[in-house]
């Protein structure tokens, strides 16, 4: 499993538990956003999610 450890979220969710099930951005073509540049979108498999947990 390749997880880079970065989860972008609003400040109001700072103390919540988030389980990443995708990485990258499915759109990834906004001219104003570069958060996920170079990170291909993909959904994690069930086994990867279980390993993460």
Polypeptide structure, described:
This protein is largely without helices or strands and 53 residues long. The chain has one domain. 13% of the residues lie in helices and 8% in strands. It is built from 1 helix and 2 strands. The protein has one helix at residues 46-52; strands spanning 22-23, 42-43. Strands 1-2 form a two-stranded antiparallel ribbon. The longest helix is centred in the last third of the chain and has 7 residues, at 46-52. 0% of the residues are buried.
The helical percent reads 10-25%
Radius of gyration: 12 Å
**Given the structure, what is the number of helices?**
1
Give the spatial strand order of the biggest sheet: 1-2
Tally of separate domains: 1
Please report the total strand number as a whole number.
2
- Oligomeric state of the chains? single chain
Distance between the termini: 12 Å
Unreliable parts? none
Structural class: little secondary structure
Instruction: Return the average pLDDT rounded to an integer.
Output: 82
Beta-strand percentage range: 5-15%
Order of helices and strands: EEH
Any idea what the shape is?
Answer: flat
Largest sheet: 2 strands, antiparallel
Question: Secondary-structure blueprint of this entry?
Answer:
Blueprint lengths: L21 E2 L18 E2 L2 H7 L1
Antiparallel strand pairs: 1-2
Quick synopsis:
The chain is largely without helices or strands. The protein has one helix spanning 46-52, and strands at residues 22-23, 42-43.
């Amino acid at each position: 499993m390749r997880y880079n450890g970065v989860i972008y979220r609003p400040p109001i969710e700072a103390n919540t538990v988030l389980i990443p099930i995708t990485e990258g951005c499915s759109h990834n073509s906004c001219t104003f956003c570069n958060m996920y540049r170079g990170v291909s979108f993909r959904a994690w498999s069930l086994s990867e999610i279980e390993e993460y947990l």
